[in-house]
Every structure is written in structure tokens, then in C-alpha cells.
Write a structure and sequence with these properties.
Layout: H1 4-20, H2 25-37, H3 41-54, H4 59-71, H5 75-88, H6 93-106, H7 125-138, H8 142-155, H9 160-172, H10 176-189, H11 194-206, H12 210-223, H13 228-238, H14 246-261, H15 294-299
Helix pairs in contact: 1-2, 2-3, 2-4, 3-4, 3-7, 4-5, 5-6, 5-8, 7-8, 8-9, 9-10, 9-11, 10-11, 11-12, 12-13, 13-14
């Protein structure tokens, strides 16, 4: 067993090594372990998360993160990290043994007394796992990102953001049915999470489930009845749905006019132009698409 003084010495040497090689996952993992043993939990979690973000399949960093959480009473987070370490390295015997122990403790009829934790140990593992998932997703390592998002949901299942992020990964991989379930779950949690609604529209459309897509658009209109954009998007997409007729589109356009345009007519200035039917009309079109869009090639 290393004494506190020896741990401090090791910590100083590892910090120097990390400064010299900040991307070395071995140095980061060892430093995280030493920080954890010194009780510097936030520092431990920070450097171990960095190691995992640098090399998400590096099981020792995930295992050390699990040890850190377990030592400081974050048992559910520790179990998720042990499970993730075993996914990466199935032969990691100590991770397997510790995971079995934690799960047996969780299923015991009498819960263990909570461990005392100081402010240094007050981490939020679900947020950490979510941040790891997002960092990995942004860097294109979506399979590893999905694993951390799933771990986050084990700890905090009512996260609309994480369900949406998982849905995005599934949609990108062509797993549209799974993506649709993820997006619907996000909206069950927070019906105003509009990012999930927009992605659900797209996933349903890509899956050819057009009537369901229309229902989602109409839900959005019901939530924001005074927003002309929501109904405008519906009108635009109705052109591409086989179950919608020209009569349906006309009725929707008239409904848009009645709701959003007609109330403004009282504010419109009178048209005092000459009404002679024989004179030449000048018509102006205003659109940002004329600047750099395929539409401008067909119109101009």
C-alpha cells in the first residue's frame, strides 16, 4: 500500500508526464487513478474522461473510472463503467467480479448505509456520461458514443436530450424504427423539445410513414398555433405525400391565410395603383434562395 507521501510523489511525476504527452492515455489513466486514491475525485473524473475521449476503446481508463466512482459511493455509475469496461475487454476479471458484487448489493433486501461524501465527491455521473457521448459523437465515433448515452440513461432515464442523441445515431445508421422510438420517448418526456420533433418528422418521412409524419406536424401546430412557420413547413411537405390531394393542400393554404395573414390585412396600406387591365404588370419575387440555391437556376 502506497503511503500518502508516495502517492503525492507519484501524482507530481504523472502530472509532469501528462504535460509532456497530453494525449497519452496510459499517463492519463494512471494519473486519474492516483487522483482518485488521493480523494481528488473531480480531477480523477476529468482526466479519466479525457483519456476515454482520446481513445474510447481503452478499457483500463473506463475500469479506473469505475473504481473511482465505487470508492466514493457512486455505485450505480460504477456498475455502468464496469459493464462498459467488460464490453471493451471481456477478459477483465476484476471488473467482472466487482460488477457481480455491486449488482448483488443492489438487489439485496436491506440496502447498505450510504457512504459519507464530501463536496469533492459530489459528481453527476449521468451528466459526465452524456458529455462523453456527445464528445465521441461529434468526433464521429458513434458506436462508442451510443454506449455512453445508454449508460447515462440507466442513471437518468428521463433525459430528452440523450434519447434524441441516441435517435440521431440510430437514424444515421439507417435504424429508423429504433430512431423513431427514441424520438417519441424524448417527446413523451418533454413535448416542447423541438429538436426531437424535427428529427422525428424526418425519420418518419424517410421510413415512408407519411400519415404519421403529418400527425407530428399537426401536433407541433397545436403546440404553437400562432407560429406561421410550423404550418408553413406542413404546407411545404404536403406536396410530397401520396395520401394528400390538391384539394387538401388548398384547404390547408386557406387555413394558413385565415390564421396568419387575414388578421394583418387591416394594417396593410391601400392599393392606390392604376387598375387598368391593359397596362403592363411588374412582378417582384423576394427570396434568399435566389442568392445560392438550385431554385435560382430554374427561375432566373
Amino acid at each position: 500500500m502506497l503511503t500518502f507521501e508516495r502517492l503525492q510523489e507519484a501524482c507530481a511525476q504523472l502530472e509532469q508526464a501528462v504535460r509532456a504527452a497530453p494525449n497519452n492515455v496510459f499517463f492519463l489513466s494512471y494519473l486519474g487513478g492516483v487522483y482518485g486514491r488521493l480523494g481528488r475525485v473531480r480531477d480523477a473524473v476529468r482526466v479519466l474522461s479525457t483519456a476515454i475521449a482520446r481513445q474510447p476503446d481503452f478499457a483500463p481508463a473506463v475500469f479506473t473510472l469505475a473504481l473511482t466512482f465505487e470508492a466514493h459511493g457512486q455505485l450505480a455509475a460504477a456498475a455502468e463503467c464496469y459493464a462498459r469496461a467488460l464490453e471493451l475487454e471481456p477478459g477483465l476479471a476484476e471488473a467482472s467480479a466487482r460488477l457481480v458484487t455491486l449488482r448483488s448489493r443492489a438487489s439485496a433486501p436491506v440496502a447498505a448505509a450510504p457512504q459519507a461524501r464530501g463536496p469533492e465527491a459530489e459528481e453527476r455521473p449521468a451528466e459526465l456520461f452524456t458529455a462523453l457521448g456527445t464528445a465521441l459523437r461529434v468526433s464521429g465515433r458513434v458506436d462508442h458514443a451510443a454506449a455512453w448515452y445508454r449508460a447515462a440513461l440507466k442513471l437518468e432515464p428521463r433525459s430528452a436530450y440523450v434519447h434524441t442523441a441516441l435517435g440521431s445515431i440510430n437514424a444515421g445508421a439507417g435504424r429508423l424504427d429504433e430512431a423513431i422510438v427514441d424520438f417519441r420517448r424524448a417527446l413523451e418526456i418533454d413535448q416542447n423539445f423541438h429538436a426531437a420533433r424535427g428529427l422525428l418528422d424526418t425519420a418518419l418521412d424517410d421510413a415512408g410513414r407519411y400519415e404519421e409524419t403529418e400527425a407530428v406536424y399537426r401536433d407541433a401546430i397545436a403546440l404553437r398555433p400562432d407560429d406561421p412557420l410550423a404550418q408553413s413547413v406542413l404546407l411545404f411537405n404536403m406536396q410530397f405525400w401520396p395520401h394528400v390531394s390538391a384539394r387538401d393542400m388548398l384547404a390547408e393554404a386557406r387555413a394558413w391565410n385565415d390564421r396568419h395573414a387575414r388578421p394583418l390585412t387591416a394594417q396593410a396600406p391601400p392599393h392606390d395603383n392604376e387598375r387598368s387591365p391593359a397596362r403592363r404588370l411588374r412582378i417582384g419575387y423576394v427570396s434568399p434562395d435566389f442568392r445560392d440555391h438550385a431554385l435560382s437556376r430554374f427561375t432566373i
